Give the backbone structure.
Amino acid sequence: MCDSDGHLKITGRVDDVMNVSGHRIGTAEVEDALGEHVDVAESAVVSFPHETLGEGIFAFVVLKNESKLAEIDLIRELKNLVKTKISSFAVPQHILVKYVFILNSYYNLINIM
């Protein structure tokens, strides 16, 4: 959801199951696949309305340390990992890579740095 200034606002997950091109997939499945990458500390996956797929997949990834890979190469590796572990329909359309996600006391995402 975008606000009037064009900033992305995440309102929370209504459902932990996404429907991507008629395939039902759990957010945890994609998060687990992303978490298998050596550079990934944690990840969060949400869906977004997609014109042709119904729902698209957006992944937020926090790195353990600064990756030796360029960001574009890291994203390519993450997408290939999801494709290998699950299937091509589960590959996120967007991946945001960061070093810190600020969480509140309930472990809800409140800021991305």
In short: The chain is about 20% helix and 35% strand.
